[in-house]
Write a structure and sequence with these properties.
There is one protein chain. With about 325 residues, the protein is mainly α. It has a single domain, classed as Orthogonal Bundle (MetI-like fold), CATH 1.10.3720. It is built from 13 helices and two strands. A two-stranded antiparallel sheet has the order 1-2. Helix 11 packs antiparallel against helix 13.
Length: about 325
């Protein structure tokens, strides 16, 4: 008489191979990469972002800035063709060349503004969260005061009064409008409060952790505890915030440039290229289509990468 297996659906455990037994444990960076790789849209965002950077950098080797600023009214408002793939603008400048050099300035504004924003946000948030008490109260009230001021309104006012007073700059053979400095400074100086509050929350959580108490017991200085022990463990939300901040800075520059108060000529950006296009929306679609499409692609790709980084660097998510 045969006895039926009481647990027919349970399979015997497969023994681990020697390679699996000897495989080293995954590091946090490898775990983050594996999780990021599973985020398909983030990978698409990385691909688009790389292509956009190559477009703006390698394109400068094909077209000179002099060609991008050269105007010929005899070919004004020409539609896309084999000679001018993106068409020409109202004074006969090649739009393809201008999107290349305009993209360089838009990316430059985004990166430098985020570097300024991240530096201020980390310093103020770290000091506020670590020391607490009166220091925390004063810094957070100051942060809330900055948050109250509408960023777009401040950008418009400051650009109106200060952009025209700064002379053009020549850096590495390229001439930049003085308004570029004003836009970078205003975006960087008004965007840090959100990051500062994130960093403060991380420091409030981590400053009583065992590794921080051990660092204090061994005589580590306050500077070392803040920047060598706590800050590296708070890097995940900082990276995500900085990534999304680049897209925000590019979008803000496009807003105010479209209103005529952003980066001034002769410097081209995707935003101020749109400024001269709103009167020709029906007549010359290529004036707004190509710079608008590039802004859309760069902002979407950065947001996709930011979403992937947020999921990959989330310490509460351990699934791979």
């Amino acid at each position: 008489m045969t006895v039926a297996n009481p647990l027919p659906n349970i399979q015997p455990l497969k023994p681990l191979s020697l390679d699996e037994l000897e495989a080293p444990p995954l590091t946090l960076s490898k775990m983050a990469w594996l999780k990021f790789r599973r985020h398909k849209m983030a990978l698409v965002g990385v691909g688009i972002l790389v292509l956009m950077i190559l477009y703006c950098t390698l394109g400068g080797l094909v077209f000179s800035e002099k060609f991008a600023n050269y105007n010929d009214t005899g070919i004004a408002l020409q539609p896309p063709s084999s000679v001018h793939p993106f068409g020409t603008d109202v004074i006969g400048r090649d739009i393809l060349a201008r999107t290349i050099y305009g993209g360089q300035i838009s990316l430059l504004i985004g990166l430098i503004a985020v570097m300024l924003e991240t530096t201020l946000g980390i310093i103020i948030g770290a000091v506020s969260g670590y020391f607490g008490g009166l220091v925390d109260s004063l810094l957070m009230r100051f942060t809330e005061a900055i948050l109250i001021v509408p960023q777009i309104f401040l950008l418009l006012v400051m650009a109106k009064f200060f952009a025209g007073n700064i002379p053009n700059l020549t850096i590495l053979g390229r001439e930049f409008s003085g308004s570029v400095v004003v836009i970078i400074a205003i975006i960087g100086l008004t965007s840090w409060p959100y990051l500062a509050r994130i960093v403060r929350a991380e420091f409030l959580t981590l400053k009583e952790s065992e590794f921080v108490l051990a660092a204090r017991a061994t005589g580590s200085s306050t500077f070392d505890i803040i920047f060598r022990h706590i800050l590296p463990n708070s890097i995940a939300p900082i990276v995500v915030s900085a990534t999304l901040g680049v897209a925000n800075a590019i979008t803000l520059e496009a807003y105010i440039s479209f209103l005529g108060l952003g980066v001034r000529p002769p410097t081209a950006t995707w935003g101020n290229m749109l400024e001269g296009a709103y009167n020709y929306i029906d007549k010359a679609y290529w004036l707004w289509l190509f710079p608008g499409l590039l802004i859309l692609l760069i902002v979407l790709s950065i947001n996709f990468v930011g979403d992937g980084l947020r999921d990959a660097l989330d310490p509460r998510s351990r699934t791979i």
